[in-house]
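Chapter summary example: a protein plus zinc ion.
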Amino acid sequence: MAKALHVQAVLFKPACATDGALAQDNPATSVCKASDFRAMAYSINDEQVRERRALEWLSRYGKDCPFNEIEMIRSNVSVWLGTSNTPKVHQTVKELYLSKKPLPSSLEISKNSNTAPVIQPSGSIKTDTKADPKAANETTSTAPKKIKKLPNKVDEKIAASKEFALRESEIAQCLPDELVTWNDGDKDGKMLSPKMLYVYDHQGAPSYVSEDAVFSVLQQAASAWDQCGGQNAVMLKRDVFEDNGSAKILVQWNDKEKLGAIGLANITKKTLTLSPDAFVNLRKNNTNRNWVETLQMVVSHEVGHFQGLIAHSKRCVDVLSYYSNDAGEKCTIRGKGVMPQTFEYRALLPTACDIQRCRIANGF
Ligand SMILES: [Zn+2]
């Protein structure tokens, strides 16, 4: 029943990863800090004053805002401002965000790639007893339109390959006959809520995984899935102290459910569980694999389940895909394409088809 995914070991580095050096760019010179914006928002109770201050703050600091800061503000503004997140504030933040958004560049892919670990897919479960072991695995990805973080350099040979170009176009564009899902009984539904808040608890994470990295990955996924039409925000568990009407989804690490999955979305319990054992093993067995990318792909996949995408895509590149079933049937690549052996084909973030299916499922 488990649909094991074939994961190839390829990986690139997201351009704006907040773990590591990139996030440390000129910390002293930047006055636009998302944490300052949040502190301002939380310090003012009056709704109108809060809106005015927010707009003042954005007009004062927004122009010099580093991308990662404005990105964080954009992902969280609805939570931080609550009812003061008026259309005007929303629009201001959006414009700043778009003005700072880096242009796409190429991908960076690590050299090796022969070892193809099999990861038990993650899945969603609607009830507490039904485990859905379809998995998410990663891929390199350029993102579809509107999705921010794009990978950097790519191994030149791979980047120049036809397979790679095909993958990129499959990510960016969804052709009319391409919305195909596995006929395995799972049916799409509506998103959990129009406003969803992913509450991250770092407790139990593998020691090599930093809280910042997971937070950033969650924000990427949340923001990318906003294209479906819901609002997805992310907060650290310790920072959550008020209810703003969002459905809260606890993002946690544990192996209690032992479902053989690397990640699991439980729609009923509103939990997104990541397996520490799976990530530890992944790293042990695949030293060349970029775990941030694996995490991104798994998180994007699971967050997709909360958007209403319960079925899995049969299109290999979709982040909601799985690659093959027990009967040996395989996922598909446009034009009868063959799964490349040198890089992971599945996207890290929702593709054009993932978003389209999501919008249809939700009646948008
Ligand atoms: Zn799944």
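Key point: Residues 122-124, 134, 301, 305, 312 surround zinc ion (CB under 6 Å).
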